[in-house]
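Why does residue order matter? Because the sequence determines the fold. Keep that principle in mind as you read this record.
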Amino acid sequence: MTDINTDQLITCSECETDYNPDEEGTYSMVTEQPVCHSCEESDLQYASTVHLVQDFVLHKFLIGDLFHINEYGDPVDIGAKRKYVSTDAWRGYNETEIDGLVTVLTGWTTGGWDDSTARRKATFNEWAESITTGEIVPPFKLAIIVDPTSNVFSTSITVQAESRERFIKWVGEDTFEELENALS
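Structure:
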């Protein structure tokens, strides 16, 4: 067993566990505090996913409370802010916003169950999939943000764009109303 010099240990700012910085741990880019690997993994496991189309190119980011990374694991700063909104003592959801964009749609969705709610949600899910697969490419900066909730069967959704009016003009009034209804 190797002796560890306790003078060299660092305390994780999240769980307050001491760790050897030569063997594990990192710094949170958000809090600028030391974080152990367990807390880093937990943060990214429950991170929000941002699909951002900018200059006709789709990017994917994970936005946690401690780390913001791209799909390749590299740290990024896309101007994202995330907060937890408590709805009662046991429930809540995360809310993520991107600087410079405005919310054009918000609500929640679920998977492809065969019930009336899931069929209504399918309208949005199919539209979002066409954006994230590149089938439809917005002519302006657009973010589809998927935030985890305390309900394992649903996710919170926010769509942000440079302008609400421009977004509605691009998708059309009827489609906008269908997407709004699907997320309600």
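The mean pLDDT is 92.
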